[in-house]
């Protein structure tokens, strides 16, 4: 390592709570690794219920990430690049799912898309029932993950600034061309890390899913739900499946970090 | 008139009106914060003036605060290119695709726009950098690419906002020469606080102070006979026009001034201008002789305090000397004296 810039020292005692905090976060991860039944690990993972839950999770999380990109990118652009009355309030409300308990989100979705919900009757007429279906899982995941992508991308858009967009416009590029050829490529790292965060949030979704979509094997029982149920009957399987999600989380952090450093 | 500008931006205290003829370059010269750049942002459609009318080739681009409907043509639809201090090349595109951006945005094919881009890269002398990323070229090269990019968009009006201010002084003379060549037949508004830029690049100059035009006219006349304090301070350069004869500038009055040519070397008989700052001039009562120096026989017209020194003025030249030197020489209006300047202090430009 090259000569580090000299800094004012920190008080020595501060290392004690800092290390304690770090141990508090890392010890449970170590516990999962230590308690994983490595001998049966593969067998547990490929059991029908597990694979079904894993594949359902990947499928629904992938779909909800796509939905987040589809709606989140325009939302972030509108929030970062325009100004209108009430924009601040709108931003706070749109980002509400970040701090809302997921189970409350599930109730809210139920009273929107459920059979007796706000839009439920309209869907009923069309012969579509959303609640307690795979669609409901995707909706619940999108609801909680969307703000992650919006926040991440809005930050990238603001720090990228508008100078390049101004140049592009004076060169004759229409707003659509500017968006496609300048704005998007410039914030691509932010978009990737936002999408990865949204995917991770979708993959871990539990509360809103179980409230709004229930827990039907192969239909709405995603990996977190499966882990929760298995804990009662087969604790070792629950640990093995948990380790899968831990590994996914580590990959996600790696991706998100890369996205940030390349900005 | 090709470009007609008349707009008020009350929030910044800027109220300017000027015209630029077809193929003409107008320099807006003034200190920082005088309102020069504000005029460019209005012309480019990036700022809506409180009231104003901006017309390019008979087409109203911005009309606000008048009877009838407001007009505000969006920036991309104006055919007005803006080149700023910083090159702002798109970092994710190659130099070639940066330059091709304008024609491509206006509907040219990929191959067609790249062909146009190559031609412009050649024009500014960096054809060999076409495939580089902007992060891998120097500041001067990047600004050349930005010039090529602005011109490749084929604007009806080109706006230059201090295009050389952010560059290393070592590369500005060469870029200035390039600009001189490529701007020759274009309609241009150039914002600068450098009198030399105005002199070499502009046909006319408008001097702006505190948001209004305080002086305007043919560049060399405005600079030689400054009527505003700012022009006198910053633009008070000595300009000696004449023809290039035998490695020196020969004036119509028969005066001979030696200097070093900047840019392409002039040929005998070419019209040229010798430029040197008043601070490079020393004043003597007798011809001191000595080969590397120019000694110009002059008559003093007035003396005035100037930034802690004394500015000694003649009909067309000025010199800055210390108050003590002025006292020792006993200079008064009407005195005969010699203005002595080293040849190395004098830059000679073709006009």
Task: Describe the protein.
The complex is a heterodimer of chains A (263) and B (351). Helices cover 74% and strands 0% of the residues of chain A. With 263 residues, chain A is mainly alpha-helical. Chain A has a single domain, classed as MetI-like (MetI-like fold), CATH 1.10.3720. The model of chain A has no long low-confidence stretch (mean pLDDT 90). By secondary structure, chain B is α+β, with helices and mostly antiparallel strands. Chain B has two domains: 3-234, Rossmann fold, CATH 3.40.50.300; 238-350, RNA polymerase II/Efflux pump adaptor protein, barrel-sandwich hybrid domain (OB fold (Dihydrolipoamide Acetyltransferase, E2P), Beta Barrel). In chain B, the strands form five sheets. In chain B, strands 7-8-9-3-10-11 form a six-stranded mixed beta sheet, with helices on both faces. Chain B starts with a strand and ends with a strand. The mean pLDDT of chain B is 87. Classes of the chains: A mainly alpha (263), B alpha+beta (351).
């Amino acid at each position: 390592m090259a000569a580090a810039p000299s800094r004012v020292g920190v008080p020595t005692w501060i290392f004690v709570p800092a290390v304690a905090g770090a141990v508090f976060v890392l010890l449970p991860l170590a516990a999962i690794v230590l308690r994983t039944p490595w001998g049966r690990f593969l067998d547990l993972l490929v059991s029908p219920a597990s694979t079904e839950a894993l594949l359902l999770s990947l499928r629904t999380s992938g779909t909800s990430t796509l939905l987040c990109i589809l709606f989140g990118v325009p939302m972030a652009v509108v929030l970062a690049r325009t100004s209108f009355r009430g924009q601040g309030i709108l931003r706070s409300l749109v980002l509400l799912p970040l701090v809302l308990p997921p189970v409350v989100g599930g109730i809210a979705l139920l009273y929107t898309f459920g059979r007796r919900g706000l839009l439920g009757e309209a869907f009923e007429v069309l012969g579509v029932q959303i609640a307690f279906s795979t669609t409901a899982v995707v909706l619940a995941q999108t609801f909680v993950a969307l703000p992650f992508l919006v926040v991440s991308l809005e930050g990238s858009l603001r720090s990228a600034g508008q100078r390049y967009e101004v140049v592009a416009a004076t060169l004759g590029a229409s707003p659509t061309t500017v968006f496609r050829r300048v704005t998007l490529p410039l914030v691509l790292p932010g978009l990737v890390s936002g999408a990865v965060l949204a995917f991770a949030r979708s993959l871990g979704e539990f509360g809103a899913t179980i409230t709004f979509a229930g827990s039907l094997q192969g239909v709405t029982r995603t990996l977190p739900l499966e882990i929760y149920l298995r804990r009662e009957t087969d604790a070792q399987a629950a640990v093995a499946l948990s380790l899968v999600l831990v590994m996914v989380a580590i990959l996600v952090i790696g991706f998100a970090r890369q996205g940030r450093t390349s900005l | 008139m090709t470009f007609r500008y008349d707009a008020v931006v009350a929030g910044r205290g800027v109220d300017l009106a000027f015209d630029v003829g077809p193929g003409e370059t107008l320099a807006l010269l003034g200190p920082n914060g005088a309102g020069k750049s504000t005029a460019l942002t209005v012309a480019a459609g990036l700022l809506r003036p409180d009231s104003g009318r901006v017309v390019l080739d008979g087409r109203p681009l911005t009309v606000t605060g008048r009877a009838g409907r407001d007009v505000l043509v969006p920036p991309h639809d104006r055919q007005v290119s803006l080149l700023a201090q910083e090159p702002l090349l798109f970092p994710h595109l190659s130099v070639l695709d940066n330059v091709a951006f304008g024609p491509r945005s206006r509907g040219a094919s990929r191959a067609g726009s790249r062909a146009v881009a190559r031609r412009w890269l050649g024009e500014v002398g960096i054809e060999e950098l076409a495939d580089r990323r902007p992060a891998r070229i120097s500041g001067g090269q990047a600004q050349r690419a930005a010039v090529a990019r602005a011109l490749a968009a084929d604007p009806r009006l080109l706006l230059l906002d201090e295009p050389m201010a952010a560059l290393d002084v070592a590369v500005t003379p060469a870029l200035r020469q390039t600009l001189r060549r490529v701007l020759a037949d274009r309609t241009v508004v150039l914002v600068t606080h450098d009198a030399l830029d105005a002199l070499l690049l502009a046909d006319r100059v408008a001097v702006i102070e505190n948001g209004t035009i305080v002086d305007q006219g043919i560049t060399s006349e405005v600079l030689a006979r400054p009527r505003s304090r700012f022009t006198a301070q910053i633009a008070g350069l000595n300009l000696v026009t004449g023809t290039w004869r035998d490695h020196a500038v020969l004036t119509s009055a028969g005066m001979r001034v030696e200097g070093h040519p900047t840019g392409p070397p002039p040929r005998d008989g070419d019209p040229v201008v010798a430029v040197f700052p008043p601070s490079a001039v020393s004043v003597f009562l007798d011809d001191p002789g000595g080969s590397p120096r120019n000694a110009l026989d002059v008559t003093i017209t007035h003396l005035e305090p100037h930034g802690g020194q004394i500015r000694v003025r003649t009909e067309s030249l000025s010199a800055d000397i210390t108050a003590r030197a002025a006292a020792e020489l006993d200079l008064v209006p009407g005195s005969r004296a010699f203005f002595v300047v080293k040849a190395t202090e004098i830059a000679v430009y073709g006009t």
